[in-house]
Design goal:
The chain is α/β, with parallel strands linked by helices. Helix content is 43%, strand content 16%. It has a single domain, classed as TIM Barrel. An 8-stranded parallel β-barrel has the order 1-2-3-4-5-8-9-10, surrounded by 7 helices.
């Protein structure tokens, strides 16, 4: 098992999409440029969604055309085949698609049934193979749904089995509303790792109940080596009532590196990005370890 932890930084997309304050394209560009020099291996810059549905993501095509040169992989979220085609036309090579484990979350999120959503994902996965692009599939509300309550592990296991037939570049198990606990995370991810190996699996946690970093630890112990996180803990889900910010990148880096894992992320540069977020939003941003980390680097 590798001691390298891969972190995808999602602040420019998942971090911004639920914020009441809409940043300008120039401000979003500043954030991307700041994060691109932190050493993160992957950076999600935005999404190709309807600006009516998520106005915070309008103009992602403009950002895609002026990405800073850096040794990392840029990615975007696409909600459907139309978004896929827009991302393809913009020259992006890695896309995230999100489907939900429950009927009601799909209906409230993208106005499609559970089966329609899976069929859409399968179409995109098939198209991606011919286009030579990578798809990261997110299985949202894999633990608890805000509309239907707890999701049975057997449901998630069956859905993962179906999705894996499409050969995604990565399959992310997402605790969309931050309701998972470390034991169930460890149990589910251990089962998945035993079936599929760790190379194509990852986790996406939110910090609604202050358990996100504990859930990261539980997933690491289960063999997971790929995680999403957001600088400063910025984030949320506009379609999930009660969802709070993503697990903070600085917290994940601190946890991993204090345990002897390598992330390649430069903490001083990352803290500069968090400071930029504080400036852009006019309010202090930061994860649970931010105060201590800031004092250590002062």
């Amino acid at each position: 098992m590798t001691n390298q932890i891969l972190i995808k930084e999602v602040a420019p997309r998942d971090g911004l999409q639920a914020q009441p304050q809409q940043l300008t394209l120039e401000q979003r560009q500043r954030l991307i440029e700041s994060l691109a020099v932190t050493g993160v291996p992957e950076l999600e810059i935005g999404s190709f969604v309807s600006p009516k549905a998520v106005p915070q993501m309008a103009g992602t095509d403009v950002l895609a055309a002026q990405l800073p040169t850096a040794d990392l992989a840029y990615s975007v979220l696409v909600p459907n085949m139309k978004g896929y085609e827009l991302a393809l036309a913009a020259g992006m090579r890695t896309y995230a698609i999100a489907i939900s484990a429950t009927e009601q979350m799909n209906q409230n999120n993208i106005k499609k049934s559970l089966e329609e959503t899976f069929l859409m994902a399968e179409d995109i996965l098939q198209r991606a193979q011919s286009d030579g692009v990578d798809i990261h599939v997110y299985l949202a509300v894999s633990f608890v749904c805000p509309y239907e309550g707890p999701v049975a592990p057997k449901t998630v296991l069956a859905q993962v089995e179906r999705l894996m037939r499409g050969n995604p570049a990565r399959l992310m198990i997402a605790d969309t509303i931050g309701a998972a606990n470390p034991k169930e995370v460890h149990d589910l991810m251990s089962t998945l790792v035993s079936r599929y190996g760790h190379q194509d699996l990852g986790c996406h946690f939110h910090d609604t109940r202050a358990l996100a970093i504990a859930n990261v630890y539980a997933a690491i112990e289960a063999g997971i080596r790929q995680f999403d996180s957001s600088a400063g803990g910025l984030g949320g889900c506009p379609f999930a009532p009660g969802a709070k910010g993503n697990v903070a990148t600085e917290d994940v880096v601190l946890l991993c590196e204090s345990m002897g894992y390598k992330t390649g992320i430069q903490m001083p540069k990352l803290l500069e990005s968090v400071a930029l977020l504080s400036e852009l939003f006019g309010a202090p941003q930061g994860g649970r370890s931010h105060y201590w980390l800031s004092r250590q680097s002062a």
